[in-house]
Amino acid sequence: MVDFHSINWLAVLVAGIVAFMLGGVWYSPALLGNAWMKENKLTLEMVQGANKGRLFGWYFLLSLVIATNLALFLAPSPAACPSGCAHTIDLAGGALAGLLTGVWVFSFLAIIALFEQKTARYIFINGGYCMLALTLMGAIIGAWR
Question: pLDDT tens digits, residue range 4-33?
């Protein structure tokens, strides 16, 4: 059981927004966007032709789901501390939890990509984003208790 009152929902919102914004930078043409498009055999016209409202709406919503899940993972459990104990998650602990969660996501993404016969470049572009986003989200949630 999780103590929902111990979660800083503003930190969850900010963590979701930061992951959303990181994606905008990570997948921009200035950073890895061109390589990402090449690995996915996408053209600029195909990317620009996507339904932006649907795409970014779902992206933002799912970023909030991920941030909420991470916050619940980091929240103190009343069962673990029945008499009440100090929760020690801070910026470093949150960042580490986010990074380790990112390793799980990276690994699952890599397994799927290997069977889809994707390249190592594809795996590291997408998996790298997941690891960095989760690390930042964990740091924000951990620091902002």
Answer: 888 999 999 999 999 999 999 999 999 999
Give the global pTM.
0.91
Task: Report the mean per-residue pLDDT for the chain.
Answer: 93
| Residue (of 85, 93, 98) closest to 22 by Cα position | 98
